[in-house]
Amino acid sequence: MPPKVSIIAVNYHSRDLITHLKKSLQESRFYNYEFIVIDNDKKNIGYGPAVNQGASRARGEYLFVLNPDTLAFPDTLSTLVDFLDTRPDAAIAAPLLFDSQNNPYPWVGTQKLTPLQGILSLSFINKLWPNHGFWVETKHLYSPVEIGVAPGTAFLIRKSVFNRIGGFDPKFFLYFEESDLCLRIRRLGEKIFLLPQAKLIHYWGKSTPHSPAINKIFAASRYYYFRKHFGLVWALIVELFARLSPLRLFVTILMFITFFLRFYKLDQVPYFDDMGWFYASARNSLYLGQFPLQGITASLTWLHQGPLWTYLLIPISLHFNSTSPVILTNIMNIVTIPLIYYLGSLWFNKRTGLLSALIFTASPQVINYSRQAYHASPIPLFLTIFLLSLSRRKYFLAALFLGFLYHLHLLTFILWPLVFLTLILQKYRPRPVHLFGLILGFLPTLLTSPLSPLRLLKWAFFLPHPSQMPVSMTQYFYSQISQFLLPQFPLVSASLFLFCLRPSRHHLWFFFPALLIFSGRVPTPLYFTLLLVPLSLFIGHGLSRLSCLTSFSILFILLILNTLSQVIQ
Question: Which domain of life is it from (predicted)?
Fold first, then answer.
């Protein structure tokens, strides 16, 4: 006489689990069954194909498909069989699953897996809102409930129905095969039920540990399911959401706002006389062959800025228009953002790096300098590359960009004491190639006025300067911090700055030059370009003390306010 039920389990490196499963079934009050184990150890043909193989050998009226990492209660099987015996309209009966602590899994019975359900429950939305219950029939079951998809972990199905639909689709190696099976069954007009009286313990993930290979199989099955039942377009949409992590989504939104803030109304960007000096110099270099070795005259009339900005403008002078230089500085500014993330991650941690990049992205002052095609505008990019090179002990690049910084603005010489201190702490050993990088970076200055850096150091550190009133210094600092964060709310900006005070040797790159700038002769706002990157890192590090939600919420509000301000202007 054939058995009433054929129990099918697939073994893949889970012999011990199957032994425990078999023992729990032996304690069952239902005895009229056969136990079929398909061995996937030698050749893993996939879960669905293995179950199909077991079904082809089964003699029972019902098939009880079980994962190896499960344990049955004494009345589990009898409850499921009795239900199908009395409900001819039911094709599948599934038990309620419990964890190892005998707590029921709240989400077992699910609705039909549609693209909308996939977007909500297989994407970052499920991580951000894990208790949404979008695709769950009910959280608490006290009586048999019709569901859309039976848990693939365990379900009892009529063999006649299983054979009628052709069993599991063999193209599903693992995952989503139960969603496909149940969808095809429901299209036949059959019903699927979850029985809370039938209980089963499931040790989640014991038989299928997570790994990159498993994740790849999961993604492939997910795509195939939606492609098969809903078409290519919906499959691609679900994949887009499923592969879009919260971090990727955040970065995508961040980059969109970044481009918007920097390129919005670009034709309305104001220009001033000194910009024209560099544009004319670049045009003369291109068409007259007059390549300058000096830039525009500095505030100290016996000094000149470097010619590097002229050199950078030469390529775009071929097809020059009024917005070309601004596009160049905007691109440089955007490239700086991921580099700040990398620098913040290197100095502190990834969270600080991300916060710092967001601060730099949203700062009105950063955006303002990005939209002014002036010789100091590239300083944030070149300074970030310099700091990265110095931190990574890439001394050739560090020396090269130290020279480049000097040619963008003479003020960058105030960083030199910190450079020497860093080299001492790193126990730096000089090499000829490092000297070559330094010479290459300072080459125009060495050819025209090789002693000017020494004269500048003497003027800055050894000659007397007119003193500046502390009130004036405080006002200047207060003004610049407000412009950097929230110009509309200066007190909020100052409070946020004070909150971020946190000891770190890396913050010397902000405080040391800031002290020299604010204590010097009537500092101009242009000097603040040297502090944009260190200040972003300083505030990012300070905000990292807060919870992730709080810190990112603060910066998101800052980003929105500054975006609205930009649009209103």
Answer: Bacteria
CA distance 372 to 526: 11
Residue 39 dihedral angles phi and psi, to the nearest 5°: -90, 115
Task: Report CA-CA distances (Å) from 392 to 206, 345, 397, 479, 518.
Answer: 42, 12, 10, 34, 30
Instruction: For residue 346, give both structure tokens.
Output: 């290197």
The string of pLDDT tens digits covering residues 186-214 is 999 999 999 989 999 988 755 555 567 88
Is residue 313 classed as helix, strand or coil in its secondary structure? helix
Pair of tokens at residue 518: 């604010």
Measuring CA to CA, which residue among 367, 358, 30, 23 is closest to residue 201? 23
Euclidean distance between CA atoms 232 and 180, whole angstroms = 16
For residue 219, being part of any structural domain is answered with no
**Angle of helix 490-499 versus helix 470-484 axis, rounded to 10:** 90
- Split at pLDDT 50, 70, 90, the class of 276 is confident
Measured in whole angstroms, the distance separating CA 77 from the mean position of its chain's CA atoms is: 46
- SS3 call for 94: strand
Asked which of 19-23, 197-201, 476-480, 559-563 is least confident by mean pLDDT, the reply is: 559-563
The domain in which residue 561 lies consists of: 247-568
Instruction: Specify if 544 maps to a domain.
Output: yes
Phi, psi of 286 (to 5 degrees): -75, -45
Scored b (16 or more CB within 10 A) or e, 435-453 reads eebbeebbebbbeeeeebb
* C-beta separation of 222 from 180 below 8 A: no
pTM equals: 0.64
Helix (H, G, I), strand (E, B) or coil at 407: helix
Same structural domain, 202 and 252: no
Same domain, 256 and 160: no
Helix (H) and strand (E) counts for the chain?
26, 8
In-domain check, residue 314? yes
- Which band of pLDDT confidence, cut at 50, 70 and 90, is reported for residue 127? low
**Contact in structure between 154 and 69 (CB atoms under 8 Å):** no
For residue 185, what is the domain's CATH number?
3.90.550.10
What are 32's two structure tokens?
């009229």
Total number of domains constituting the chain: 2
Helix (H, G, I), strand (E, B) or coil at 66: strand
Q: Write down which residue in 208, 238, 259 finishes a domain.
A: 208
